[in-house]
Amino acid sequence: MFSNSVKRLFSNSLIFSIGTLGTKVIGFLMVPFYTYFLTKGQFGVVDLISTTVAMLTPVVTLSVFDAIFRFTMDKNFENKILFSNGLVITLLGSLITLIVGGIAQGVGYQYGILLAILLVLSVVNSFLQYFVRGIGYVKLFAVTGIVGTSLSAILNILFIWYFKLGTNGYLYGMVGAQLGSLILIVAVIKPWQYVDFNLVSTANALKLLRYSVPMIPNAFAWWFTNDANRFFILFFLGASANGIYAVANKIPSILTIFFTVFNQAWQISAVDEFESENNSTFYSMVFNNLIHFSFLVMAGLLLILKPLMHVLVAPSFYSAWEFVPFLMLAMIFSNLSGFLGSTYIAAKMTTKLFSTTIYGMLTNIAFNALLIPLIGLNGAGLGSALGFLAVMIIRLKQTKAFVTINVNWVPLTIHLIMTALMYATLHIENQFLMFSLLIVFFGITVALAGKDVFVFLKRRKIS
Q: Domains in the chain: how many in total?
């Protein structure tokens, strides 16, 4: 019944995986370099700057790239209308950003202009990438990720190791990577062919903004739910602790690799399948298998966590392993919430999306403020996990208004129990006993996930 839909989802996922996996693998392999040549404080600073850019990107552009992607999929607008109006909004936001960055530099903020340039490159890249993905250039979208990350790695080695520029060197590498991706997209799609300023009008711009503006507070709140704990850590524990936290987050980012690959393809399938009669069954099938796969990857990472950290980071960062499990759990609930968020986009119900994120943000803030002073860095991971769990539950209830997703709660509960047991096992001093128990719990997780995942994979075959 769903063979063609599942096949297309896998096909798009494969294309995106080439770019995303290549990008993340390169970034992952650079972690030993960063932890060796940057201090905990420096790594904490660049991590804060990176997350700030991610936070401000939808604000600067009024999240218009979300509207561009959604409406190119609908085919109700000419591409020139979408591109021209979106470009004007993006350029106006970029101009304001440069002015604010210059003022910030003038009043004494060390990274004002550099941050503004990085942010402008990020918003222009986001605009172009969402446009090319919407019009079907999925391979180009994938390749730009590899090009950008490769440039970042090369330039960071040059600036941090050779020129010994520290934090500034890392930021210069980020700028160079964004610029390289931008040049590649421009060279391939020749965006000027989509520009016609005669098509720019208040009416056309408002059509885009009515969809995208509700995404701004949602994006901000989502960022706050995901990354605000860094500021709590900075306030309560200091920049060095934030550096440890940033390194600990590199392991859960492996889960994000798989979800990013999947979600880029899923957003297309979510829109395509939304109007079908069996959308509830299809959405439920994909969601439950995403749960299985996420906990399977987490169990595998917990199995090799300690040896991996020995290889991956400098000795001064090794203690970061203790904070990884809660962060991985937070990442799983974040990804599941993100999946449910795609249903709002497919239904064009972006205004409702914001309210769910607000609840998660408030939950996260409350638990971060309470737990970080009490239990340290693990409080940040646990607070995030509870925040995203709240978002997931609320969205499951709210999305029933336009699509019902039936969750298999028993397997999810067993996965959580296995995760808790593996986390407790990691603290056993006897290495043989610890590893033996980890293998047992990992085997149970594999057996639990195996059956449903196998059935899902069989549906790739064409009827």
A: 2
